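Usage

Read records sequentially. Each one opens with the input sequence:
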Amino acid sequence: MAPLFEDEVFVAFSTYATIVILKTMLMGPLTVYFRFTRGAFANEEDVRGKTDEQKKKMLRTHPEVERVRRCHQNDVENVIPFVIIGLLYSLTGPDVSTALIYFRVFAGSRLCHTVAYILPLPQPSRGLSWITGMVVTFCMAYSVLSHKMRLGFREVNTMTKLSHTIEGDVMAAFVTYTAVVVIKMMLMSPLTAYFRLTKKAFANMEDTKLSHPVENPQFLRVDPDVERVRRCHQNDLENIIPFVIIGLMYCLTGPHVSTALLYFRVFAASRICHTVAYVLPLPQPSRALSWMVGMVVTFCMASRVLTKTFHL
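and closes with the structure output:
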């Protein structure tokens, strides 16, 4: 893998991916800071040693704490797809200057998004920074899907040590279906925004001006359709990220092309069916079956990985 770090695009990706991941991780300590300074905790053990009266006051939600938590969740929903797609993109042999623009714009957009969310700044500052990051990831995903992938991903093979163990068709298929399911997962964010606007159900005061000339507290509410889409998005995160990690390791075990294609296609189809069944919604057990099929695929790939690499 050492030759990868001699590649300018991959080095740039590693730099900016690390920056945005660290930024995402820092939202954890920031949440802790707000919990302590606002005296708002979520767990009984966090207020151990306090009187019953103090516990009642401290075990509560606080708008500023929830704001930071929503910002953190938004980072998870956007930074992880960027890292996955960005890694695949960096291995397709893109132009260095174009890649640098993508990486820099994305990192800048996420930093601006966090500042706009936490302070907060008036809309559309946060909305524009979120859209900018989404566009960058979609552009890289398009490049990945339109690129003809073979061994090592590049005309100049920077993965010579892996080229003996990775079947080109298997990796190409994995990259394709990974891009498909990650794009599907990312589309849940615009869908959530659509439902928030059409249902006039917002989480932040500054967002209410998007559907009303002035800020209106009555639009700060929970809508069942919005929450349904958010739960579907969360389910994507809980299932697609494990698929990508396990799937990459599965590719390194040298599986048969037809078996790998079956796994990747079934998983992608199951996630699309799951989303349709969740959002419409369709009667159970349609959603449960589609979720279960995707889980079985990931477990089957994990089984092969453990069989081939088990070492304690």
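Summary fields computed downstream for this record:
- The CA atoms of residues 12 and 100 lie 7 Å apart.
- The first helix runs from residue 8 to 38.
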